Amino acid sequence: MSRLFERYKKEIVPELQKEFGIKNVNAVPRLGKIVINVGVGEAIQNAKLLDAAKADLAMITGQQPVISRARKSISAFKLRKGAAIACFVTLRDKRMYEFFDRLVNIVLPRVRDFRGVSPKGFDGRGNYTLGLRDQLVFPEIDYTKVEKPRGMNITIVTSARSDKEAAALLKKLGMPFRDTN
Prior knowledge:
This protein has helices at residues 3-20, 48-61, 93-110, 163-173, and strands at residues 31-39, 66-69, 84-91, 128-132, 152-158.
């Protein structure tokens, strides 16, 4: 398994049990999955842009992305129902921990003017979402082959029952939260 998962089992689980008074080891919050979504709105006019986004996402995650289609037509955006507009990957288990490790230790420090991720990205159910403005912060991407910077949303789904538990879990796993003062 990954070094982050080993650290989670040996150090973080006992710390969280003590902090929240959880007796059962299985009730301790843990990572469930990480979903990385790349929206390509311009794919309506040019389908090749979606292929480029799909290739980038496959390089970043090591997994083949799934194409996501529009649920309904929106005439103001010239969008038809069923048109391919995004791609996403769902990471679990070993790949999830390896991606999280890379995200926290390599990718986020490479973001320009980075002062920590916002603590406001929680959804009220213990899940956290953060957005990246371009894919060039990932070391796997060759910037000479990128024709257009593309952002992505990264959603970290946890088994925590509250945002407070999820924040404690992510902080112990190394997520660099910005100070809220």
